Amino acid sequence: MKPDILYRQSFYIQGGDFINAGKISIQIKKILKEVGLKSDIIYRAAICSYEAEMNVIMYANKAEVEFKITPEDINIIFTDEGKGIGNIDLAMKEGFSTATNEMRELGFGAGMGLPNIKKNADEFRIESEVSKGTKLFIKINLN
Q1: Is residue 71 part of a domain?
Q2: What's the CATH number where 56 sits?
């Protein structure tokens, strides 16, 4: 039996939009606070959503974010249209980055995004196809 969905919302991210970077993760954090979740859960969800959002802004053309809360967990799915990830194992290594010099000058591209998501999510999966895009599945348990 599927769990009840307590809250659901979709967001859209435009690649390259550094001006609005972080706005979606801030909205997710605000929603989780309004729902009354524990601060450690909110913190973990905020890190995951921020890191994924920044990866879209840095590397993809655009993305849709599906965000939902059930009585058991938080699910955040990022589906982007972009370059895709050629080597997921390499991309998961701390410090590995394909950031441009411009991105690094803005303070991004330390190669910690995907490892930080993995550390803070209870379940994390990546599907990617080069020249098509990437899909991140992030789940955080509420218990």
Answers
A1: yes
A2: 3.30.565.10
